[in-house]
Write a structure and sequence with these properties.
Blueprint lengths: L1 H16 L8 H30 L2 H4 L2 E7 L2 E6 L2 H9 L1 H11 L7 E6 L1
Helix pairs in contact: 2-5
Length: 115
């Protein structure tokens, strides 16, 4: 009998000691995430997209798009192997110009992916 009472007291003590969590609105969390994480990244990467579009001729722009930037690598999705070949021929010049105009992104490589 004593063990049962002790167990109930331990349970009540544990419940009183549990940390209480404060309810927050999902909108507040999303807004904070947007302001602190996403917007700064988006600002950096939109500059890369703008420079990329300025560097490429209109013909090539229609056949490729930026799909990811991570770890210093710019991933470009291209719709045809022939356009990949064209882009690879000038990739070192494209990378150098992107590095010059977007130094905060710290690009080290361009990878072309055929879709």
């Amino acid at each position: 009998m004593m063990d049962d009472i002790e167990q109930i007291q331990n349970t009540l003590t544990y419940r009183r000691q549990r940390p209480s969590y404060r309810a927050v609105r999902l909108g507040q969390v999303a807004q904070q995430l947007l302001a602190e994480q996403i917007s700064p990244q988006q600002a950096k990467f939109s500059q890369v997209d703008d420079v990329w579009r300025d560097l490429l001729p209109a013909e090539l722009q229609q056949h490729c798009e930026i799909v990811d930037i991570s770890g210093g690598q710019l991933n470009i999705q291209v719709d045809s192997p022939s356009y990949v070949y064209e882009l690879q021929l000038c990739s070192s010049e494209l990378l150098a110009e992107l590095q010059h105009q977007c130094p905060r992104v710290r690009l080290t490589k361009i990878k072309f992916i055929v879709a």
